[in-house]
Amino acid sequence: MATKAEVLDFIRIYADKMAEHRQELTDLDQAIGDGDHGINMSRGFKAVMEKLPAVENKSIDEILKTVGMTLVSTVGGAAGPLYGTAFMKAGMSTKGKEELSNEDVILAFDEAVGGIQFRGKAVRGEKTILDSMIPAIDAIKASIKEGKTMAVALVEAEKAAWNGVEYTKTIIATKGRASYLGERSIGHQDPGATSTAYAFQAANEVAQK
Ligand code: ADP
Ligand code: MG
Ligand code: MG
Fold first, then answer.
1. Residue 83: CB partners within 8 Å, gap ≥ 6?
2. How many helices (H) and strands (E) does the chain have?
3. Which whole-number Å values give the CA distances from 146 to 134, 149, 164, 206, in the listed order?
4. What is the pLDDT averaged over residues 192-203?
5. Nearest residue CA, atom 11 of ligand 1?
6. 3-state class (DSSP) for residue 10
7. What would the pLDDT profile of 152-197 be if each residue is shown by its tens digit?
8. What is the 3-state composition of the chain as percent helix, strand, coil, each rounded to the nearest 5?
9. Cα–Cα distance between 202 and 185 in angstroms, integer?
10. Which Gene Ontology terms of cellular component type are present (predicted)?
11. Which of 80, 96, 124, 156 could anchor a disulfide with 139, C-beta 3.0 to 4.6 Å?
């Protein structure tokens, strides 16, 4: 289960993390991309924080859609439209909701991944956001299926996300700017997979409160 207050808390904590890890994400992108991932994410979530007060009393779908639209309109490059689409799709799946059941949360995550895949045409194993996001969501599904609480599921999800981040070091990038490096991308950690792992870290922190 997730309340609206928890959804808002998640967005705020994630925004803080994007500011806090701006340099780290940018350094990772410097190695295999154009060195702007931390700048992009922190700029986007700073804009989200400015928009949030206007929608925080609206339903969860309105909140998520606002986050998505703000990211799409304020962040250039690959990640802005991808994260933006993820939040917009998650929003569309939660229409009119004031709180989310575990099934609603899982559906929202599935829609988010679907949006990223529709837009970016990537699959797991291409050294992208998806390499931490898909395992994290699979972990949530497995935990809930076993009858665990969402709080326990999110502990597992964060672990799976960071394992996914580690896995990106071992594979070749075949999507996005890092793909220009080919084999030389091996050994480097994917910035987008890393920023996604921080999203699951934020969600986990909210769930443990
Ligand atoms: P840009 O590469 O345009 O400068 P960013 O640096 O903000 O954009 O984001 C780079 C990240 O975007 C990569 O580390 C990767 O995780 C992610 N990414 C790139 N292309 C795709 C894609 N097609 N699908 C999913 N994620 C992608
Ligand atoms: Mg970049
Ligand atoms: Mg760029």
1. 41, 44, 68, 71, 75, 129, 195
2. 9, 2
3. 18, 9, 22, 22
4. 98
5. 192
6. helix
7. 999 999 999 999 999 999 999 999 999 999 999 999 999 999 999 9
8. 75, 0, 25
9. 28
10. cytosol
11. 156
pTM: 0.98
- 48 alpha carbon – ligand 2 mean position (Å): 20
d(CA 186, CA 122): 18
Which is nearest to 203 in space by CA: 163, 161, 145? 161
Amino acid at 46: K
Q: What is the pLDDT of residues 45-76, one digit of tens each?
A: 999 999 999 999 999 999 999 999 999 999 98
Q: 154 near 132, Cβ under 8 Å?
A: no
- Across all residues in the chain, what is the average pLDDT? 97
Cβ atoms of 76 and 47 within 8 Å: the answer is no
Could you give the 3-state DSSP secondary structure of residue 152?
helix
128 CA closest ligand 1 atom index: 16
**Please, what's the largest Cα pairwise distance for the chain?**
48
Q: Give the domains, in start order, of the chain with CATH numbers.
A: 2-207 (1.25.40.340)
